[in-house]
Amino acid sequence: MSAIRDGARQVMAWLHGWTGLLLGWVLFVMCLAGTLSVFKPEIGCWMRPETVATADPADAIAAAGRWLAQNTRESTGWYLTAPDGRMNTVEAAYSDGGTFLYRALDPVTGAPAARETFGGEFFYRLHFELELPFPWGRLLASLAAAFMLVALVTGIIAHRRIFKDFFTFRTGKGQRSWLDGHNALGVLAMPFHLMITFTGLVTLASLSMPWGIAAAYGDDVLAMYHDLTPGIAERAATGTKVPLAPLAPMLREAQRRFGGAPVGRVYVINPGDSAAVVTAFRADSGQIGFTPAEISFDGTTGKVLAGWAENRPGVQTYNVVYGLHMGRFAPSLTRWLYFLGGAMLTLAIATGLVLWVVKRRERAPLSLGNRILERVNVGVLAGVPLGCVAFLLANRLLPLGTLDRLAVEVSIALWTAAAALATGVALPPKLAWPLLLGLVASGCALAPWFAPLGQGDKVILVGNLLLLGIAAGLAALVWRQTHPKAAPVRRRAARATA
Amino acid sequence: MAGVQSRHRGWGYRGNVALRVVTGIVGTYVVAALVAAALARTLPMARVEAVAAATLLAFLVAPAVPVWAFLARGPWRALAGVVAVSLLLAGIAWLGGRPA
């Protein structure tokens, strides 16, 4: 690294600071939500404790299809995700009389789960759509990911002592400690951070970087999608009503052609129309590559229309990069490593944002801009987790029959986060930090106790223990904030240099 | 760009940074888009294969642009470099033509 001039390193540090800061709050939301999304299926189980039935993936999809056929009108499509070892419900996104709905369906009856909730889907969508309308949320997420990638690359170039910082942590020393913490979090999981940021950018490539497609296909995007997934049969609705054939035999045939691997996603396009198409995708959990194989059936006769198993090197590489980000392949231990890596990246962003302020405060009194930044930092860094906890608490406390329960849960989460942000801006940071973090800790400590009795599932137990662990960790942090050590940090300001 | 310190905040410095920021942000996207377009047309593979590979490579190349934009000796040099690379890539894409 000594080949790089010191001036250059300083420039890179400057760029690292600004690229990290500008969309830092967006990145914090994305990373926190993404980290939680690693356990999307498990969070779904935690949030629907009444739904305990399990069924074979094909049987569950068939049950879902029967319920949807009776309970949707003029649907243009059902997009179903089969249960697997991690989640017992069928996830259904479908159109019904012009509106698009999401429900988790019971694997045996096919009816919506008693406790209507988005479950882990909320965090998953928040991760890359940021609760903004299409395509703006995804575009903002792409932009933030691009800034993140630049922040990572410049951070690495700016960094003098990658190896040494592995082992450096100076506690209780103001800026030094924040820097050490930020560096340790960044450096320890650096390969993960680079991988997850790069692969994340790629997942939204068709929206954010469509110029390869445009250069090779012009306006004919459908031709590109046909080439990409030849096993998806496309045909326009005829308007003639013909009932959908039973799904179970088609799914069994699909599983047979997948070499015994279970079905993952199942799309039913134009159900009830004479041109209905059923496309089954091989489960994502068996290999890193996403969309490894798919097969399409005529929805009225069950005859095979098209089938494909992916083995082209370019597309396969793309699918592997995509699959690395989704992490659906990950067995238990790898999944926890994804979670840990994501948590470290989230904390690296949080410490980086705090460091921006701490560093400037130790040199001179903060400018107005940085004083505002300091307060928004409190509001976002404590408020977003508080919103997430409010989501979990709302799930436990809202009565089961609440009208539009899914949306109410989300509203509670968003309004809580907004109120926390306002609090963070209104109160001095010295008060706002312990208050908001204390609330997050209390929420985490409370959430485990409201599960319906007798639903002692292992996933719920692990989730509750994790919540209690986070509560304990945050409580310790709040304790430290409210009981500062004797030597105040400010005295060192005179010594602090560039 | 020696004057990152807060003391050097004259208009010259601001213009310097502004030009590099614009070069860095716009240039990164333009170069990435052109890498994707040029390779999608010229890689010796089936059409969809070339598109997939080209898009991946575009994202890999992109971070080099902002690094260049801020490390080049002067802001105009930074801009000129990005423009030159863009023209080269656009030329390759144009010569490649849309595959059948």
Q: What spatial form of chain B do the alpha-carbon principal axes imply?
A: elongated
Overall pLDDT score of chain A: 92
Q: What value does the average pLDDT of chain B take? A: 91
The tally of beta strands of chain B, per DSSP, is: 0
Written description of the protein model:
- The complex is a heterodimer of chains A (498) and B (100).
- Chain A has 498 residues and is of the alpha+beta class.
- Chain A folds into 3 domains: 144 residues, no CATH class; 187 residues, no CATH class; 134 residues, no CATH class.
- In chain A, strands 3-2-1-4-5-6-7 form a 7-stranded antiparallel β-sheet, with helices on one face.
- In chain A, a hairpin with a 5-residue loop joins strand 6 and strand 7.
- Chain A is globular, with a radius of gyration of 25 Å.
- Chain A starts with 5 loop residues before the first helix and ends in a 16-residue tail after the last helix.
- Chain B has 100 residues and is mainly α.
- Chain B has one domain.
- Helices cover 77% and strands 0% of the residues of chain B.
- Chain B is built from 4 helices and no strands.
- In chain B, helix 1 runs antiparallel to helix 3, helix 1 runs parallel beside helix 4 and helix 3 runs antiparallel to helix 4.
- The termini of chain B are far apart.
- The N terminus of chain B is likely disordered.
- Chains A and B meet through helix 1, helix 6, helix 8, helix 10 and helix 11 of A and helix 1, helix 2 and helix 3 of B.
Kindly summarize this structure in a few lines.
The complex is a heterodimer of chains A (498) and B (100). Chain A has 498 residues and is of the alpha+beta class. Chain A has helices at residues 6-22, 24-37, 40-47, 57-71, 120-129, 136-158, 175-188, 190-203, 205-208, 211-217, 221-228, 247-257, 313-326, 332-363, 368-397, 405-426, 429-446, 458-482; strands at residues 77-81, 90-96, 99-105, 263-269, 277-282, 293-298, 304-309.
